[in-house]
Amino acid sequence: MKKFISLVLSCLLIAAAAPMIVGCSSNGDSFSEDNGKLKIVTTIFPYYDFTMNVTQDKANVKLLLSPGSEPHDYDPSPSDIVGIENCDIFIYNGGESDEWVESVLDSFQNSDIKIMCMMDYITPLYEQNPDHTQGDEYDEHIWTSVRNSQSLVSAIAREAAGADAENADFYADNADDYIARLQSLDDTFSDIVQNGKRNDVVFGDRFPFLYFVTDYNLDYECAFPGCSSETEPSIATVTYLIDYVRDENVPVVFYLDFSNGNTAQLISEDTNAVPIKLYSCHNITKKQFENGETYISLMEQNAEALKEALS
Question: Is 210's pLDDT higher than 90?
Fold first, then answer.
C-alpha cells in the first residue's frame, strides 16, 4: 500500500489535468466539473443508493466499486483516489475490507473533506464463526439490517445538509420519505418472521447477515463467516449442514449473490432443500445497475426468499 500511495501521489498532477473517471456517476456529470453541486464519493452500492435517494439531482454522486466487481477484492485506482481528494463528502463502510482508506486519507492535503465511516453510526456486532462463537473483528455488513439503514440514511442527510445548507430541507424531506419506505420493508420482514412456521435459516455460503438475523431473532447455520477468505467448507461442515437440513426439514438453503452456490447445491442434492439466492446488497451486477435495481428492490426479493425459507 505504501508503494501504491507513492505512485498515486506522483501521478496526481497528471491525473488532475486529465478527464476524471471515478466508478459510476449520477446524472452523467463530470466529477471534475464545478457545477455548484455537492461532490460525494461512496465506496459501495448501498451507500451510493442511499445517497442518490437523499440528494437526487442536487449532488454528483460517485460509486467506486464498479457493478459486477467482487467487493472484497477492491483496490482503489489512482483516479479513485483523486476523486476522493476532490469531493466534499466521502462515504465508506469501515471494517477489514476498508483498511486501505486510512492510508489514502493520510496522503491528502485537503482537510475540508467530510469523512463518513458508516460503522460509526450504528452499534457494531462481532462477526460470528459457523459454530456461533465470537470472532475477533466487527462484522462490517451493517447495511443488511434495514433498521441500521434507516440510521445511515439519516446520517447522510445530516451531513449533506451541513455541506449544502441551501438544500437542507430538500435532503431532510427525501430522507424522511426513504426512511418510511425502509420502515415498511422492516414491517414486511417482521410479519414474515412472526407468521413463519419456523425460526431458522441455513446458509450454504458466507454469512454476511448477522445484523439482519439479529433484528428478527432468527437462528441460523452457515458454512463460513461473512468475510471468510475460504472458498470450500470442510467435509465436517458440509456433513453437519446436510444432517441439520435433513433432520430439521429445512426447505431452503441460501447462497449469496456473487457466489457460485456450489455448497448450497451440494447440500440440496442430499436433502429436499431448494437452493435460493439471497442478496447481501454489497454490490450488484452491471445488468442490475443498468436495469435500475435498488437496495429496496433487492431487499424485497429477499423478503420473498425469506418467506419461502420460513414456510
Answer: yes
